[in-house]
Structures are given as C-alpha cells and as structure tokens.
Amino acid sequence: xxxxxxxxxxxxxxxxxxxxxxxxxxxxxxxxxxxxxxxxxxxxxxxxxxxxxxxxxxxxxxxxxxxxxxxxxxxxxxxxxxxxxxxxxxxxxxxxxxxxxxxxxxxxxxxxxxxxxxxxxxxxxxxxxxxxxxxxxxxxxxxxxxxxxxxxxxxxxxxxxxxxxxxxxxxxxxxxxxxxxxxxxxxxxxxxxxxxxxxxxxxxxxxxxxxxxxxxxxxxxxxxxxxxxxxxxxxxxxxxxxxxxxxxxxxxxxxxxxxxxxxxxxxxxxxxxxxxxxxxxxxxxxxxxxxxxxxxxxxxxxxxxxxxxxxxxxxxxxxxxxxxxxxxxxxxxxxxxxxxxxxxxxxxxxxxxxxxxxxxxxxxxxxxxxxxxxxxxxxxxxxxxxxxxxxxxxxxxxxxxxxxxxxxxxxxxxxxxxxxxxxxxxxxxxxxxxxxxxxxxxxxxxxxxxxxxxxxxxxxxxxxxxxxxxxxxxxxxxxxxxxxxxxxxxxxxxxxxxxxxxxxxxxxxxxxxxxxxxxxxxxxxxxxxxxxxxxxxxxxxxxxxxxxxxxxxxxxxxxxxxxxxxxxxxxxxxxxxxxxxxxxxxxxxxxxxxxxxxxxxxxxxxxxxxxxxxxxxxxxxxxxxxxxxxxxxxxxxxxxxxxxxxxxxxxxxxxxxxxxxxxxxxxxxxxxxxxxxxxxxxxxxxxxxxxxxxxxxxxxxxxxxxxxxxxxxxxxxxxxxxxxxxxxxxxxxxxxxxxxxxxxxxxxxxxxxxxxxxxxxxxxxxxxxxxxxxxxxxxxxxxxxxxxxxxxxxxxxxxxxxxxxxxxxxxxxxxxxxxxxxxxxxxxxxxxxxxxxxxxxxxx
Length: 844
Fold this sequence. Notes:
alpha/beta; six-stranded parallel sheet; eight-stranded mixed sheet; 37% helix; 30 helices
C-alpha cells in the first residue's frame, strides 16, 4: 500500500479522537483523508465494537471510495468495508466501515434514533454544505449532549470554513495535513462572444497539446448535455484519434463511471460534471480545463418551484478543480474565463439549506428530532434556512396531512416516512391502496426518481413507431412513461430494442429496481399490491393528492399557457400527451433559462384531472365569494359569484347588479391604469388642474385644495357614478366635476389670480403656461406689450411670470421677468435691427 500524506498524522488523529468528542481535519484532496482515516480509527479501536460511518455527498463517491478502501485493506466489498446509497446496498453484518450518502443515515434515525450501532461519524467533504449533512451534524451534536456522549464526530474537508464549524461544535482538536500536491500553473482564457463553451474547451485543448506532453486531461462541464457536446467537439480534432474520450457524471452506469477513472493504456480526456471536483481522485491527470460552470439546483419559495440553472462556480470550487492537475506531478489548469471575472466571483457556494426544497428533510427532522415545525427557527441549525422556504415546506406538509396544524408529525406523516422519497410521492403511495393502484403509483414514484426514460425522438419513422406502440394521447404523461417502462421490461431492457422507441433501457432498469423496493416497503406496511387499475381514475386521483398545490387551468384551448395555484402562470411542455384537458396537475414545475434571456415557467409530467375530484378529495379547500369586477371582454363592470379552490377560480356565474359606488371605483381604476379614456378629459382639464396646483403652492394662506394624483381618482369616481360600462362614461362631461373640487368663490379667486390668459394693452389675450414647481411663462409679441410698462403679477402680487418677448417671426428675442428694464436697456438696440428686418410692423 503506497504512502500518503495523511499517514504522517495517524498518531495525532488517534490522540484527537481519543480525547475529544469531535475533531476537525483539513487535508487536500488526494492526501488520503477519505480512504485512510476510517481505517486508522477502526484499527486503533476508536469506534470500539461499533461501526464507522463515512458520509459522502454523492453516490458515485460513496461507491468508488468504498471500493478503493476495500482494495487497500484487501477485503471483499460488502464485508469489512461496504457502502449504501439510495436503492443500492453492499453491506453485511460484518461491515465495520460503511460509506453512505447522507440521506441514508438520516433515515436510519427513524428506526434507531440514537444510532446505537454507530461509534464514529465522519462528515467528509463537509465544505459542500449539503442540507442533509447539516441536519445530521445538528442531530449528532444533540445526541452527544444527551443520549450518546460516547459518539465520535469528525468533520473532514479540503477547503473548510474552520471557524464556522468550530464555533458551532465548540472547542476541540483541529488537525491539518499539508498533503502532497505539486504546483499547478493556472491560466485564463477570455471566452469569445457567442462561442459555445464546449467548442471553446475543444479549441483550448487542441492548442495546448504542445505544452502538455504527458498525462491525462480533465475537462469540467456543467451537465450531461454539455459533456456530450464537448466529446463531439473533441472528436473533430484530428489529435483525438490518439486519445480515449470518457464522460463522467452521476447518471452513468457504474461500469461507465469506472471506465473513466481507472488507469488506461492510452492517454485520455475525461469530461465530467462537478462529481470529479472532490472526493474522487483520478490518477494521471496533469491538465484541467475548467468551464467555470455548474448546474445548480435551487428552490424558489416565492413560486414554489425548483430551478436548475447553469451558474458560475465559486472561487473555492475553482481551486478544488485546479488541484486535480497536481496530484502526481506538476500540472496546469486553464480557466475559460478572465482573471478579472474570477476576482468578482463568490468566494464559496451558498449552503444547500439556503437554496433547496425543505419539505422532505423537515418531515424527517419532525420524526427523528421531535421538531415542532411551527418552531423550526428554534432548532440548533448550523446555519438557518430561508424563512419563506421554511414556511412553504411546513405548509406543504400540512396540506399533505403529514403534520398537524400545530406542526407535529401525524400518524399519516409517520407512515409516509417509510418510503425513501419526497413526501408528495409518499402521500400518493399511502393513498394508493384505497384506489387499488399501489403497483401503478409505485411505478410512478420510481419513474420520478430519474430523468424521463423517454428520449427525444429523431426521425419520422421512429416517431410513428413509438406512437403506434405507446400512443401519443392520454390523460397523463406518466401513463405513456409507464407503457414505455413495461415495453422495456418485456424486452429485458435490451438496448437495441429499447432504442428503437428512444427508450433509455438502462434508466428503465434502475426504475424497475426502485419500483420493486417501493412495493416491498408497501407489502411490509400491509398494503395490498395486487394490480387493479393501471391507468385509471384512481391513479390520477393519487397524483392529484400529491400535487394539488400545482393545479393548473388552461387559459384557452389555443395556447399552452395556463394559470397555476398561488397566482402563478406558466406554459405546458410541448411534448406532453395531455393536450385536451382544461384542468391538470404538474408533477414537475421548473423555471428554465431561455437562450434569448429571461426565464420560462415550464409544467411537465402532466396529468388531467376532473374538477369534481377537487371537491371529493379536498372539501375544506373551497370558498365561494361574491365579487364585483371588470370584464375586459364586455367592457362592463359585473357582479359575479366566484367558486375558488384555494386561490384558483374554478367557476363563476353572474349575480345581482353591481353596487354603483363599487362600479364607479372600478371604472375609475381602469381609467387611471390607461385602459379606458374619457374623451372630454383633455388638455384644457389638465391646464386647469395645473393652474389650481400652482396657485395652491404660491398662496398656501388662501387654503385652496390642490388636486394630486390620489385626488384624481375621487374626481373620476364622481364622473363615473351611476355607470356600469365604458359606453356610458366615454362621452361624459368632465370639467364640471373637476371644477367642483372648489367652491364657487374659490373658482372665482383662481380665475382672477391665476388666469388661463393675460389681456394685453392692445386687447389681445395671450396664454399663460403654468408648470408646477416653476415660474409661469407668458409669450407675447413686442407689439402686444406696448403700453405695458411693468411685468404683470399673479397670485395677488406674489408671482411674476417669465416673459418670452417675441419678434414678428414668433421667436423669442428676450426672456425676462423685468419688463421695465427691457424697455430701458435692451429694446432700443433691438428696435433698430428688428425695424430693418420687419419694416411693415409698428416700431415705437
């Protein structure tokens, strides 16, 4: 067994775990912390006769690390060393070191709240801050203080916020391994505008080969699609003929994953998602090409949807990726972004507890920690969740009947926990026996744990073949997937036969294993699993029970747009087979980034439902209200009785005549919004209001009430009083109601002190332009102003308007507020020039 840097710390690790209940260990990836530390603790007796559990954030890491540790300790996988991930287990009664994903251990707490057979829990790669890891650390720390003071905890990571963890756990040993890394030269390449990231990666790889004579290359891409595109782009480079190209992501088969990481005779390029960022050591990598991107799952609590956007990784993740090139020899990392951009990136990733759906972990914590979900904020979180996301999770669990109104887990909730799946599907499985469709719902739940087994169809013949065998219409997308699964199952999941219908045979095989696991649990719970209704109403009712909060109503038959509960609006996915239904539920509601910018709310895995079922299944969720509202189609105010399921209108019917005052307010609002126009609310009305507001500002002592924006609505209501439709108001007189804002004496005062026009000495009346916050402007020709020696005054002498003195061509020759000064100083000079240019006009 080769020596690794962590070996030098063995004695310190033993002493630390012997003297303290918790130890923090930081060590670079590749130093051996994940593979050697569990063996040290076992061999040094730290766990006693109990097992050592190593928590991993990813299934692929748990499996591969267990294999490696078993090989190093020269034991068969599943004996002394084993692993457990969702729906897959290689352990036995002899297992002492168990690598598990975090959700596995969290669920063990349901049946064994004190983890009585566990002596040590190692939280590996804790810097990734997965939600379940946070919950487990909180629960384990609570157990240490109460029922399990003998339990040992280790927090391991290459890049860890030590202060955060130490402040949470309290004083304890902090160990650090320097590792054995080689220098990595980091370079940046600014991305060309509009160049696909996979084409840039292939171009950079090709141009760097001369500087890269030895070793393998690891390219990071955000997802499976980008990985496939990158491999296709690499194949276009003639140099790739001498290289082996491998994808690496979580949905690949274990065999394909092993192919990517095991040593090979030829040099290779591994194109991976961030599964290769931590935990896994891939020997031989000397070059890393980093797209700087990852697909990040987030939950939007305001809309109740999951989002999956490609986002820029943090500086910490970029350092982790770069380190992959320096494990065995000096290497290089090429980042496909600029150095300036790198400095602007976040230092680390946002913890999952701040960005994912909390319903399933909240239900688990309600069971294993007795958490009162109404008091979730009082729990000892490592870092607390977003308030809105937490409240939404509690509301969903309440709607599903998993917790009561006081936030305590119910018997129904306890039953739901038997199924290792989101509470929605657990609730469906629990309800399925009543409708005789346990097998069908178990298959639906299993299908939902994977991406769709149906791939996009290419070619007319393939499309027609799939439609002939599977059908292209129906009442649920799940039904088509179920038929596809049964086809694949009957063909023993053969790749060639499944491929003819564009069915993912390998994925379907995994679905079958998950379905069988659900059925096994159902039988253990005493449910009858005999098939009664494979695609009947009962199945659709179960789907509605699980997803009632994602009920949608088509806006009209000619569009895919629909209204969704809680004031949302979205669009049905175009490949749905549920084309005719007015009412649907969406099992998937996802915000998708558009290539042109912006986002779409997309509804998929759709199921048609009947409105009558809503009353049958949710009798308490209905309310009838009488409302007066604007009908944009008839352009009338109407009184209607609305029937709502929660906040979504299901039906409406006309009721009595609307209340006149309410109708007037609605019409006024529509005018204010610009939807309706009063023909006689013209410029003369606006000028009158401006004059009033100016005079009110100039002479507050006169107590003239101005007309502000909020006051206009009152005037509009008066104009609209007694009307129900736009037709009745569009030609109504406006000025009487506007002037009615003042008393007759006030109107008379305004007309005298802020007149619309000024009477010049020669009898001409010229307009005055009023502007709120500015001096009024009076435009008049020189001839109109003869015999006017001083500037006119407004507002009882408080305001002098600005005079625009015009030449015969109606252009200003002087702008002044001092008419007397103009006659004395400026006019004599202007007169000579103007008289020459305009000899036919009078010049005094």
